[in-house]
Amino acid sequence: MYYQNIDKVAHPVLLCFQYMNISRTKFVILFIISGFAFLFITTSLLGTTGPRGFPKPPDSVLRTGGDSPIVWKNTVSTIILPIKIVLLGPLALPQINFLKEDPPPPFIGIYLIFYWTILASIIHYLLGKLKRS
């Protein structure tokens, strides 16, 4: 009995997802909506070009607000950098010149939807495996 309580304390992630019965499709849709909301909010708050879904040339893709003289923008940009790296994926690699060519916004959105669908499916699968074990 004592070990059962330790098991619950040792795996707080499992407790959060113990009753997660969300379908993969619903999870992917929520992930995509949350990803676009995250990018829009961070770009709007930290960027210099105003409310946009994706930063314009004075701002970089990953370090939106990173070059700002305002201290809180620089700090927040540093904190969310790992999240942006995962969310932008291969698009954020310096070897890929996709963003430097200034593609139309629908192409960026289509890429992100495709990438986030794969990412969300993998996360849903891994959480399902954690829940079952």
Description:
The protein is built from five helices and no strands. With 133 residues, the chain is mainly alpha-helical. The protein has one domain (12-16, 24-132). It is globular.
Quick overview of this protein structure:
This protein has helices at residues 2-10, 12-16, 24-46, 71-88, 105-132. It is built from five helices and no strands.
Fold topology:
Blueprint: H1 2-10, H2 12-16, H3 24-46, H4 71-88, H5 105-132
Using the alpha-carbon principal axes, give the shape.
globular
Largest sheet: none
Order of helices and strands: HHHHH
Strand content: under 5%
Supply the helix-strand structural class: mainly alpha
Key traits:
133 residues, mainly alpha, 5 helices
